[in-house]
Amino acid sequence: MQQQSELVSMILLKLKDIAPAAENNIETKFIILEKGKISAEAQNKSCLALVADETAAVHFQLWGDECDAFEAGHIIHLTHGIFSYRRNNLVLRAGKRGKVEKIGEFTMSFVETPNMSEIQWIPDPSSNSNKRIPGHLISPHSRVFPPIL
């Protein structure tokens, strides 16, 4: 029960509010909608998943044992996550400092658009920092996980 009360007391970022950055500062909750094939390169196992909350969807990178531990319908709590490019694909992931844990199943409202991984992000012209802002939409849906018609 302590874990549930800790989750309620913290402020979670909505997926529509994430932006690419080189910092592990994303704390959010989402449901896994679909999981792609597991690929094994050398000793590294990974797979991509389509995840969503009530505001947006995004591609989420699972690594190692996470690929087998999480399935479609699982509700996940991500702490110290990072939204950045991995092999020219913009993905949300735990990274080395982050943590993912299952906190429930099947009972979460979600939307599939916009997909934050399908937005072209550009440098913020009003800022001298590395901050990025949405430029234009590449695709309204995931090109990796196309919608079922």
Automatic annotation (TrEMBL):
Keyword Secreted found: no
Keywords noted in UniProt: DNA-binding
GO BP annotations listed: double-strand break repair via homologous recombination; mitotic G2/M transition checkpoint; response to ionizing radiation
Record has Membrane as a keyword: no
GO MF annotation list: DNA binding
InterPro entries found in the cross-reference section: NA-bd_OB-fold, SOSS-B
A GO term from the CC aspect: chromosome
Descriptive protein name: Uncharacterized protein
